Structure formats: structure tokens, C-alpha cells
Amino acid sequence: MDPIVEVVALLLGFIGWVMVGVCLPNRYWKTSTVDGNVITTSTIYENLWMSCATDSTGVHNCREFPSLLALSGYIQASRALMITAIVCGTFGLVAALIGIQCSKAGGENYVLKGRIAGTAGVLFLIQGMCTMVAVSWYAFNITQDFFDLYYAGTRYEIGEGLYIGWCSAVLAIAGGACLTCSCKMGTEEKYNVPYHARGTVYTGAGPARSVGASTYGRNAYV
């Protein structure tokens, strides 16, 4: 594969990994809606870890969720998926830095480097899929409660943290797909030297003949 494509894929994976790190602690995964409210005295916003409120004077107060087991199942699953995405992205970056062709970290074994690059691509794909599932699942629950006419609790809208997560997932999946395509499953080196080994060639038109130094005539030697 073109080394430029590998470098671009590495940059996409790196940017996606950074955006996951920005998305996870972001407080605005969902914000309380003002739809249907004539007077709004406070704004509530939450993420996977805490719930915050801001009043009309600008004073805000945050509290962490008191119990892990008391949380909804989708929040617990989203936490696990986002942490998995960060871990896979970290290992993917290390593997990509070793596996790309322009890197000297993995030596000159291009077959091994290609397989390491392919592994990095798979890790980036896992990162992107975990992030995509986490933020999409979280957004689904927000929209489900918002459009439920019988829901009596606070209605929320999608916050900026989810948009960052979606962008991160797309970048990670794109970078992972490019790196996965660079995986070299063959056994030949990148630069092959023509070589004819001694042996026997079998042809259907006639008897077997030997291939080697004897195929050259005497006039071939100086």
C-alpha cells in the first residue's frame, strides 16, 4: 500500500482517538429542553458520570452519580464501550506507529510490518464501532423519552458530546479500514530478487528437465 495512505490512516486514527478522549469527560451529552416551557429557571445537563444544573444567574452545581448499580443499563454499557474504545485506540496507535512502512521501529521485515498495520486497523475499527454504539445508544434513549407523550420526567435533547463522539467514530472507522487493507498476508518480501533455484520442471509436452546452471551454454560464461 502507498505509505502516504498509511500515514493519512494513522492521522485519522489519532484524531479519532483524541476526540474520544474529549468526548468521554464532556458534560453535555444531553441537556434539558426548553421546548414547551415558557419560563426556564435552570438548565440540566448530564453525561456518563455526573449530572449538573445551571440557574439563571449562571451558578452551576454538579454531582456525581451516587451508585453504579443504580444507573440505567444503557449508561453502564456506554461507559464500558467508551473505555474499551480508548484502550483499543491506544494499542492501535502503538501498533500503527510500528507497522507503517515509513517507520523504522519494526525493522525491514515488511511482511511483519504489514500484519502489524493490519492489526492496528482492526483495533481502530473496534474503537470506532464501540464509540458509535455507545453514543448512538445514548442518543436513542434521549429521543425515545423526548417523543414519549406519557414520559413524566425531564425531557432532554442531544448534547454536543454526542456529536463529538459520532465524528470520532467516523474518523476511527475510516482510518482503521485503510490500515486493514494494508495488511500483507503473503510470504514474499517487499523487494523480490529474481532467482531460479535448481530443481526439476515438469511439463505436459515432454519429459522432465533440470533447471539450473546446466541450462546455460558454454558461450554464456566469459
Automatic annotation (TrEMBL):
Family per record: Belongs to the claudin family.
Membrane topology listed for this record: Multi-pass membrane protein
Keywords for this protein: Cell junction, Cell membrane, Membrane, Tight junction, Transmembrane, Transmembrane helix
Gene3D superfamilies attached to this UniProt entry: 1.20.140.150
One Pfam family matching this protein: PMP22_Claudin
GO molecular function: structural molecule activity
Originating species: Collichthys lucidus (Big head croaker)
Transmembrane segments: 7-28, 80-100, 121-140, 160-181
Broad class of where this protein is predominantly found: other
Job description of the protein: Claudins function as major constituents of the tight junction complexes that regulate the permeability of epithelia.
Protein name: Claudin
GO CC, one annotated term: plasma membrane
Domain of life: Eukaryota
Subcellular location: Cell junction, Tight junction; Cell membrane
